Amino acid sequence: MTILEIILTILLAGIIGLFFLGLSRKIMARIHWRYGPPIVQPVIDIIKLFNQTSISHGILFNFGIIFSLAGSVVVLLFLPLGRICPLSNSGGLLVILYLMLISPLGLALSGGEAANPNASIGISRKFLLALGYEVPLLLILLAVMTYYNSISIVEIVNKQIQAGWSFQSLPLILSGIAYILILPAILGLRPFEMIHAPQEISSGPLVEYSGKFLALTTILHAFNVFIGISLFVNLFLGGAENPGYFFLKMLGVFIIVILVNAVFPRFRIEQAIKYLWKWPTLLAFAGLIIALITT
Amino acid sequence: MNLEILLAIAFGGALFTYILGKIYSRLRNGFAVLNALALVVMTSCLYGQTMEKSLNFGFLDLPFVLRINMMSWFFAITIVGIGLLSVLFSIKFMKNEKRLDYYYFNMLFINASMLGTVISGDLVSFFIFWEIMSWSTYLLISYKGGKAIFAGLKYIIMSIIGSLAMLLVIISLYTNFGTLVISELALQIQTASLSYVFFILIMVSLAFVIINAFWPFHTWLPDAHAEAVSPFSSVLSAVLVRKGMYGLYLFMYVILGFNILNKLTSGIVSFNSVLCWLGAITIVFAALTALLQNDSKRILAWSTVGQGGYMILGVAFATTLGMAGGTFHILNHCIYIALLFFVAGSIEYRTGGIRDINSLGGLIKKMPITFIGGLVGISGLIGVPLTNGFVSKWLIYKTLILGNSPFLAFAAFIGTWGTILYGYKFIHNIFLGQLPEKYKDIKEVPFTMQLPIIILTILVILFGILPGIPLKMVNAVGTSLGFSSLNVTLGGIASEAGTLNIINIFMAVLVISIIVWLIYKRGRKAVSVTQDDNYAAGAAVPIEKYHYTVDFYYPLTRMISPFLKDFIDDFYMRLSRSVQNLCDGIRRIYTGDVGYYVMYIILFLALLIFVQLNWKPW
Fold it and tell me: Is the pLDDT assigned to residue B37 strictly greater than 70?
């Protein structure tokens, strides 16, 4: 049963994530007054890339990307998708927070072995941006955990199903707004796209990847988009009773993020940090204090 | 096994090593290792035993009491374990240094005195061992001369301040209660007045907070750790600094106990909460300062400062879960920081003493074992799941969140995210990126240096995947201090407030990695190329290759460095300078020349006569 759930979670997450990637290109194109590629384009790309020749720079270069993808997939198993949550009993939100480290670390090690300065610059930016958004994110998560007095994400979802979304409950609304403000940074979309910045540092950490490595990073990106939005839906939009409803909620959030992505230019990294440490952090801080008082 | 025999072997072995070194130096190294090994074996045999023994040849007619219980065993095993590995590491590392007899003697002597502090059952012998430890540490920090002498001085001055405070407490306790045996004191002190207990606690905490290097007493540590020789740095950082935690355990939970600690509150401020906040400040300050460092050992030194904050957060929170987290973190920190100092030492050994990480790079292919050690050590330091640091940090976070202290938890989290940044920088700048031309022919370190790295690497991963093994021991420490027992399983914790099952996580990561690997294998095989192949996109490779390491986090460090000025250190330095100036001034008056003194006497007499003549006061 658990194994079935695990397979189902991974498949659903993969399909939803890839669908979002395709959809985002379509929406972006329409905003730009273009026709855009078909929605299955990311899948076509992945199949094509797997059959292309690629170059490798060493063992860590190969295994870093594998660990990175595996780390992302493991996080999925801790996130409730509707009612499905295979590893709900193994540590809760704290473990999710830490497991989310494996993916960027793996990619960073792999990119570091490539020894290309563009990759190093991208990685440095990735970690700086992560520190930037983790400050408000941690405050938000702490507010949620303090308010519900639990570190189990399943329990938090259940309490919301009983008592309504946390986004609607007054003590957590500030935290919810702060989360929306940092969501583009978590997903690495514009205006926080400086990690990849194709025109500037040739896709940063991905600069030395080719063929199947690029295919794996595309899958990784799909999973990461799924994780970032799924965490928000679970914590603030009350999760869902079934995967279908869950998907609709995710879709709504994703379209908002994509609309922001379509019209904003890129921040420089220090501008991004300054932004992240100002309004979202202030809101999250106030949210935490309110959550602390109301419990 | 007798405790006095253990101590005799520890101290006697140190002396014998010195003498042997004078006679036949090759035997000396082997004997030093054997002696350290014997201590490990003997200490492991003492597992789970509780005994107290009074000997009559005490100092000033006070009994000399030795005792062992779960808590002292826990600290003792870390001391002898790291002691053995660092002596082993020293053999090749110190090969070309001078005064080796003195070095090995001092290493073993410090080991023995640390062992003495944890198994002594009365405060006089505790103090004596403590002082032996402080002074021999001072000598060994300054071993290399130059900057190291200054670092040693900084250490010893702060250490003496702490020791004096402790001595005052010991004298006061003796005059009030007439005994210094810990078990008797613990009973008698329950009747003492609260203000007296508060005084005792503040004074001893000063001693232990200084050795633990909590903010604002952290200033000695970065210098001392960076300037000491690497094998000794790992002893310093892994076990010696944590003698401060032992002291806090001893006074807070063994001698005073909860009853008294719970009474020391006024409003929301209690002694424990002050310690917690000191820990939180230490974590954030140290993590951000470590970001600015470019010296491999200095980065590790600052991380040592920061990790101490996690321990005190857990321990001072004084719940079963927190205590387990804090105690476990002491063990975990001891393992991975010793590992990281060995790694930094190996790099120094092969590159001719280079500690500036910006001038290194690309060593992964040349020193793979060292690299794996470094990667695992840094992962443990960050607390990546499946390494030991994760479990203890999980326990501490959980304690803080469920204990309704989200701001303390926030400080702890931010410390961890800072650790990721400097941890990756440590790995990237040393091992990844481009290999400088001059390190083209570098080789992996010899086997006796690899062995400690391999052992500790395995321990980090073993305790990370099966945390039940050490947690059982940690749990026994907690229960011996009067905390209730945790429900420990092999894969973590199964308490009603939430479970942690590392084995599940491990299985998930393993299976999914294998699946991803299989998918990876299905793709077309990758061609292995050198780094130059793609670097210049087909054009000729430039001679001076760009390598992005210097100021790795410049956009951030530029923003935060003005806020991170170590004004505490500045304050201490200014204080010491002004004391020195004052003393210089006094010395100009007391020149030591009799002529000047005669002149002073005559001038003074003249003044008296002048006063008498004018105003006739007498």
Answer: yes
Q: Is the pLDDT of residue B57 over 80?
A: no
Residue A295 CA to residue A248 CA, distance in Å, equals 31
Examine the fold and report which residue of B489, B523, B557 is the final residue of a domain before the chain moves on: B523
Residue B566 in contact with residue B289, Cβ under 8 Å?
yes
CA distance A133 to chain B (A): 11
Contact B523 A54 (CB under 8 A): yes
pTM of the predicted protein model: 0.91
Q: B528 vs A73: CB contact, 8 Å cut-off? A: no
- CB of B143 less than 8 A from some CB of A: no
Q: Do B427 and A109 touch (CB under 8 A)?
A: yes
Measured in whole angstroms, how far is the alpha carbon of residue B270 from the centre of its chain?
Answer: 26
- Which residues of chain B are within 8 Å of residue A87 when distances are taken between CB atoms? 504-505, 508
User: Which positions 146-205 of A are in contact with B (Cβ < 8 Å)?
Assistant: 146, 149-152
What would the two tokens of residue A164 be?
């309504």
More confident residue, B500 or A229: A229
If you count them, how many residues does chain B have? 618
Tell me: do B512 and B579 sit in the same domain: no
Q: Which residues in chain B are closer than 8 Å to A70, comparing Cβ atoms? A: 509, 512-513, 515-516
Residue B550, SS3 per DSSP: coil
Position B488 pLDDT exceeds 60: yes
Q: Is B586 on the interface with A (CB under 8 A)?
A: no
Structure tokens at A116: 């290309």
Contacts of B266 (CB under 8 A, 6+ apart): none
Set of chain B residues whose Cβ sits within 8 Å of the Cβ of A51: 523-524
Which structural domain range is residue B317 located in?
A: 265-523
* Residue B58 confidence (pLDDT): 60
Q: How many domains does chain B have?
A: 2
Residue B348 lies in a domain: yes
Is the CB of B546 inside 8 Å of chain A's CB atoms?
A: yes
Under 8 Å CB pairs connecting chains A and B tally to: 213
Residues B602 and B519 in one domain: no
**Does some domain include residue B602?**
yes
Q: What is the pLDDT of residue B376?
A: 92
Q: What is the DSSP string of B383-401?
A: T-TTSHHHHHHHHHHHHHH
The stretch A126-148 carries a mean pLDDT of: 88
Q: Give how far Cα B536 sits from Cα of A89, B221, B541, B616, Å.
A: 50, 44, 6, 98
Task: Mark yes or no for CB contact A87/B410 under 8 Å.
Answer: no
Q: Are residues B489 and B579 in the same domain?
A: no
Of A70, A134, A152, the CB nearest to B417: A134
Label residue B437 by pLDDT band (50, 70, 90).
confident
pLDDT tens track for A10-59: 888 888 888 998 998 888 898 888 888 888 888 998 888 888 888 888 88
